[in-house]
Design the sequence.
């Protein structure tokens, strides 16, 4: 039998408790009811006799189906959340346009404010905090919406 691959290990690990100390020409499946390892000569798969290869494949297929179902539920939840997230992002961006002294495109929102003395142009600590919070929130929403 050839050197076991990662796929062989993954398959065998669904029925065996450990593989590292077991030769792969013997079935390493743990038989719970008998409190021992199967030990039959392995058939087409390393560490697995024909019977336990079938059991392992069934478990792996079941796990894959569960993963797929979980991924489907996640995608459905993302879609369900989309309108609310888009609305929240629009609100955050509207507030940012209102209070951000410099637009993303580099144009000042308010030319008069731009030419005001520096001391008057400096945003307050509270305003800077709000800007940071809103920018962070907007970035998180864009990421959740797959926009960045
Ligand atoms: Zn076996």
Sequence:
């Amino acid at each position: 039998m050839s050197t076991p691959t990662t796929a062989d290990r993954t398959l065998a690990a669904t029925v065996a408790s450990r593989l590292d100390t077991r030769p792969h020409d013997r079935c390493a499946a743990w038989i719970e009811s008998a409190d021992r390892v199967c030990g039959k000569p392995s058939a087409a798969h390393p560490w697995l006799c024909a019977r336990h290869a079938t059991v392992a494949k069934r478990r792996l297929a079941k796990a894959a189906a569960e993963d797929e179902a979980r991924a489907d539920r996640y995608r459905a939840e993302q879609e369900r959340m989309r309108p609310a997230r888009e609305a929240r992002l629009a609100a955050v961006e509207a507030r940012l346009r209102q209070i951000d002294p410099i637009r993303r495109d580099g144009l000042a929102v308010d030319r008069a404010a731009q030419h005001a003395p520096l001391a008057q142009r400096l945003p307050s600590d509270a305003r800077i905090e709000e800007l940071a919070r809103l920018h962070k929130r907007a970035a998180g929403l864009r990421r959740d919406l797959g926009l960045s």
User: Anything to note?
Assistant: The chain has one domain: 6-144.
